[in-house]
Write a structure and sequence with these properties.
The complex is a heterodimer of chains A (283) and B (478).
Chain A (H helix, E strand, L loop, with lengths): L1 H17 L6 E12 L4 E12 L8 E6 L2 H19 L2 H14 L6 H9 L38 H4 L5 E2 L2 E3 L3 E2 L3 E8 L5 E10 L3 H15 L2 E8 L2 E7 L4 E8 L2 E9 L8 H9 L3
Parallel strand pairs in A: 1-3
Antiparallel strand pairs in A: 1-2, 4-5, 5-7, 6-7, 7-8, 8-12, 9-10, 10-11, 11-12
Chain B lengths: L1 H31 L2 H20 L4 H6 L2 H25 L7 H20 L9 H18 L15 H28 L1 H20 L3 H36 L1 H4 L1 H19 L10 H20 L3 H4 L10 H19 L1 E9 L5 E8 L4 H18 L6 H20 L14 H4 L7 E7 L3 H22 L11
Antiparallel strand pairs in B: 1-2, 1-3
Helix pairs in contact in B: 1-9, 1-11, 2-4, 2-8, 2-9, 4-7, 4-8, 5-6, 5-7, 5-11, 6-11, 6-12, 6-15, 6-16, 7-8, 11-12, 12-16, 14-15, 14-18, 15-16, 15-18, 16-18
Chain lengths: 283, 478
């Protein structure tokens, strides 16, 4: 009986160890995703293919950042509007800014300037030349510019608007900018129960995906002290990790915005007023 | 009898606590000082404490003892308490391999090594059920440790394969040392064998530290408290080991090592609840399933008295052909399920150039694969066991098989490694952040279902064997 059991075990183990030795394959994604500097997806040519595992690392999805025709036109209109403001021709500026806002309400300072003109004020011209131009900005390094339009290595303006250079009560640090996401840390400019504040804005291909990311990622990590609130018209979520961190997150169109604050005291729930105050300063 | 049993259980609990403390303090010390000092210096503190609390050895008894037994005690002490830990320390960097893997290799695997190596020693030979249970306990520990956090850093034999193979080698050295020690303990008694063993280990430790004399002075001044704590922990673990070796033998004493990962998990639960350290997030399903298998299997090892201690009157009935056929078929199917699809894994990273891969991990790479294997192995061992095992241990083995089967279902999506050799490191290094993710999804595998069904059938067919009196050593025909 023992011999039978020993032969059974040895034979079976040998067979079980030999079978997994056969070459394994893996499904990988490969291709190119083209995004506009304004944050929108221009085109996507991504395939899933099956390759041997040893070759898997060679297949990646290349992200190309270009300024698409639409946003290139917006840029031109916006520049002309700035020139008109500088020349004092507010009627022309209003016309061009209205066209910009109609196409993209969050395009740089177009909405703000238009509101100022409508209120009878003369806005200050925006001297920046590129969307998302920020002295501290850096490119995540993942872009490979191609295409007929001028490639840029800057952040999409639809995202950079969520990490302003000035935030009352906070001192902005150098932002981290990538093609589809931006983040910026802020440290308190005075006494505060928080150690710091980090704002992250991430571009998704649809509004539903942005909402899903809050449901699946933010709520999973910050599931304690959960509450729903409204911030500047956005339906937002407040939660903590129960130990140190509190967050307010909301979808803004295809963008998911999250403000995360670290508590000094270990009572993150108490950070809600500070988080709300910071969130209300955003667009 | 009841008192002896309680004493044994008490020593077992002390051993688990001692092993946990040795792991924690050696982890702290390993970061701070040379391996030779960490392995050697605490042995002197342990020796002093052993002499203080265990009593001075009776010199006359040692003088009159067989030289071979004295040699076994000294050599066993050197191998198990200096050389084996030194091999492990030499393989440890600050967090490489990660703690979960070190716990796995130096506690669960070492415990199984002791039981399996004891199979080759006639006087200590455990029943087949104990060997099968030791393997099942290792599978349970792997499930448990792979669930300490998600994504888990537990990926044995992937990133630090060579270092971990050395830890297994150290486990064999430890087992051989402990088997030499148990022989000396039986011949000389604990009071004589224990100081001899620790003296041998301390002497070897002293020789090992000669190359670190300069550092020793500095370390003694800076880190003496860490070394003292480690020495106290070693003294506690060593004392409990000696007590258990004397009372129940080597293979049953190995229960302490097998169950230690559960003890350390309880410690990490406390750490997590107090919010200081500890893995986060715990995967509770895997933790509970793995712990249940470890405990159920360890009970089998604890109850499995070596054949030589029961005598020939405890021969069990020869299993019928149907019963043996079912158990064998279940075992073969469980082995086949190790090579069949286990979980579907997805790795995605977008910290740099986006990467996305989806592939199938086979049963051998998953908790469920090894738990199904363990269940089938336990049932096969119960059915094939002829000589010996006490009925209680065989019943416990069937309970452990049921536990493994249930755990296999509960931990169906638990992979036994997160790291993979062929995925770009920049993706794997960012797992758990917003830049990368590694997720698994359980697959329904017909081979595994067949293995579970056959195991259940074999288990049911084995129950009547355990109902009959053990003394009926008769041929049985189904």
């Amino acid at each position: 009986m023992k011999r039978y059991a020993a032969v059974l075990i040895a034979g079976s183990l040998a067979a079980a160890l030999l079978v997994p030795g056969c070459q394994r394959t893996v499904e990988v994604q490969t291709g190119t995703r083209t995004v506009c500097t304004a944050g929108e997806l221009v085109s996507e040519d991504i395939k899933t293919i099956e390759v041997p595992v040893k070759d898997a690392a060679n297949y990646r999805v290349k992200t190309v950042t270009i300024t698409c025709d639409t946003h290139s036109g917006l840029s031109k209109l916006y520049s002309e509007a700035q020139a008109a403001i500088a020349a004092g021709d507010l009627a022309a500026a209003k016309d061009k800014l209205a066209q910009v806002v109609a196409s993209n309400p969050t395009y740089r300072k177009a909405k703000q300037q238009l509101d100022e003109i409508n209120a009878g004020k003369k806005p200050t011209p925006d001297t920046g030349t590129d969307p998302g131009d920020d002295p501290g900005a850096n490119n995540g390094g993942s872009t490979t510019p191609t295409g007929s339009t001028t490639p840029t290595a800057t952040a999409p303006s639809a995202l950079t608007g969520w990490i302003p250079g000035t935030l009352s009560g906070w001192t902005a640090q150098k932002p981290t900018v990538d093609a589809l996401s931006v983040a910026r840390e802020y440290v308190p400019s005075g006494s505060s129960p928080a150690i710091n504040l980090v704002i992250v804005a991430e571009q998704f291909s649809s509004e539903a995906d942005a909402k899903k990311s809050i449901d699946q990622v933010v709520k999973a990590r910050y599931g304690k002290d959960a509450a729903n609130l409204t911030v500047n018209g956005h339906a937002a979520y407040f939660g903590t990790d129960g130990r140190s961190f509190a967050v307010i997150a909301f979808p803004a169109g295809k963008v998911m915005v999250a403000l995360e604050m670290a508590a000094k005291s270990g009572a993150p729930k108490a950070l809600r007023p500070q988080l709300e105050a910071a969130a209300k300063q955003l667009p | 009898m009841k008192r002896a049993w309680m004493n044994g259980l008490g020593a077992l609990l002390v051993l688990v606590a001692g092993l946990g403390a040795v792991f924690v303090f050696s982890t702290v010390a390993a970061d701070e000082m040379p391996d030779a000092i960490t392995a050697g210096a605490p042995l002197f503190a342990a020796l002093v404490l052993t002499l203080l609390f265990g009593g001075m050895p009776r010199v006359e008894r040692i003088r009159s003892a067989d030289r071979r037994q004295v040699t076994f005690a000294v050599a066993g002490g050197i191998a198990a308490w200096w050389l084996a830990p030194l091999i492990v320390l030499a393989q440890r960097l600050s967090d490489a391999p990660p703690g979960a893997e070190v716990v796995f290799f130096t506690l669960a695997v070492w415990g199984a090594c002791l039981v399996l190596v004891a199979l080759a020693i006639r006087a200590e030979k455990p029943p087949l059920t104990a060997a099968a249970a030791a393997v099942a306990s290792v599978a349970g520990s792997a499930t448990l440790l792979a669930s300490w956090e998600r994504p888990s850093s537990f990926s044995p034999f992937i990133r630090y394969a060579e270092r971990e193979i050395w830890m297994v080698v150290a486990g064999v050295v430890f087992a051989l040392g402990m088997l030499a020690l148990v022989r000396a303990v039986r011949a000389l008694g604990v009071r004589e064998a224990a100081p001899l063993a620790l003296s041998g280990a301390a002497a070897a430790g002293l020789l090992g530290m000669l190359g670190s004399v300069g550092e020793l002075r500095f370390m003694a001044a800076q880190q003496w408290l860490s070394l003292l704590y480690l020495g106290i922990a070693i003294a506690i673990a060593f004392g409990a080991w000696m007590r258990l070796l004397s009372a129940v033998g080597a293979s049953r004493a190995a229960t302490g090592m097998l169950v230690a990962p559960v003890g350390l998990t309880l410690l990490t639960v406390v750490e997590r609840l107090t919010g200081i350290y500890g893995p986060d997030p715990f995967e509770w399903t895997g933790i509970v399933a793995g712990s249940a298998v470890v405990v159920a299997s360890s009970v089998v090892v604890w109850l499995a008295v070596p054949a030589t201690r029961l005598g020939s009157s405890h021969l069990e009935p020869v299993p019928g052909r149907l019963r043996m056929g079912l158990a064998s078929a279940a075992f073969v199917a469980s082995l086949a399920s190790l090579a069949s699809p286990g979980v579907q894994a997805t790795s995605e990273g977008h910290a740099t150039t986006p990467f996305s891969a989806t592939w199938i991990m086979v049963g051998a790479e998953t908790a469920t694969g090894w738990l199904v294997f363990s269940a089938a192995l336990l049932v096969l061992a119960v059915v094939a066991e002829r000589a010996s095992a006490a009925r209680a241990s065989r019943i416990a083995a069937l309970v452990a098989a049921v536990t493994s089967g249930i755990a296999a279902v509960l931990a169906a999506a638990t992979p036994l490694h997160t790291w993979t050799t062929w995925i770009p490191a920049d993706v794997q290094q960012t797992y758990g952040t917003e830049y990368a993710r590694f997720v698994t999804e359980a697959l329904v595998d017909p081979v595994r279902i067949v293995a579970l069904v056959l195991t259940a059938a074999a288990l049911v067919s084995a129950v009547p064997m355990l109902v009959r009196p053990a003394s009926q050593a008769t041929e049985e025909v189904d």
